[in-house]
């Protein structure tokens, strides 16, 4: 069965973006960037892939991306209606009136039902939960793996990795890679 994987950048204090959606405060490290390009090339937006040597590089892990409106909106603001054209794209939003791009499917209700249908499909590719925190909070019971890029910075405020009801769910770290700037990439799986 396909897995739902929440792969996201996060600050030390648990924020995935600043209060205005900022993400430019995350410090870069060449070794982290190279690792992500090699292992998760499909997580790079389609319109920048040719500029970073990933044009035509096949997907390695994910074949589907799921995002909330807050995650999708910056692409729209930049004039990009299909940010991950090399993946099947779903945007979960009750406030977005419509999506003009046929490559992106708008889902207004029942994100858990959507994820369950996607998981039941045949295929080897996993489902990438790209963000944001409200959607991750709604889908917490369905998340099969967390893949957190933790950057060595405190944001102080912003969009939390998970927003919503208080409902603790334990996860166990199964692998951590550390990069030159002190940032990490940690894989967590639900504790049995």
UniProtKB/TrEMBL annotation:
Superkingdom: Bacteria
InterPro entries: DHFR-like_dom_sf, Riboflavin_Biosynth_HTPR
Record-given protein name: Dihydrofolate reductase family protein
